[in-house]
Write a structure and sequence with these properties.
By secondary structure, this protein is of the alpha+beta class. It is built from 1 helix and 8 strands. It has a 4-stranded antiparallel beta sheet with strand order 3-2-1-5, covered by helices on one side. A 4-stranded antiparallel beta sheet has the order 4-6-7-8, with helices on one face.
Length: 189
Amino acid sequence: MGGEVQLQAGLTLIELMVVIAMVAIVLAIGIPEYQNFTRSNTLLAELHTLKGDIALARSEAATTGSNVVICPSTNPTSANPSCSGNNEWNTGWIILAASSANSCTAGTGTPFKIQEALASKNTVVFSPSGTTATTTSLCFNRNGLPATTTANGMFVFNTSDNNADDRLCLAINGTGHMNILANGQSGCN
């Protein structure tokens, strides 16, 4: 028998060690790739959630016939959620009726929808452009269009480790059209 140890399943000890080494190599390569895959998919899912909620705000404005505001909130799940006034949307956001028909100030009351803070610890920052450089929320009128130019800018989505290769952006123009961009495309930096 040549001195080889035969195992129950018919494999020699050397063959078993080769199989274990191959599994270790596959896991060493596969686990980090799987983590990157899930991190990228989580970021994309969060982007699509915000995109859908912006579309919902537009729809609610057209349905109710009055201005509707979607804004970042640091207390979206409280009894009286409010807009935070900053550009960080990863803390959560709310969709509310405006305080009056022609206003873009968020009113009080029950929101149409709330989004809790992102559990992933990814960041979402809105960078307004043009004349809306201080805008922190989006406002849609009774026609479902942006009220004035409050919707012009870009949401930048970063993973918790701020890996530029994973960065995604949601650009929104003055007519409310949204476009998903990858890092390096059309100002998504």
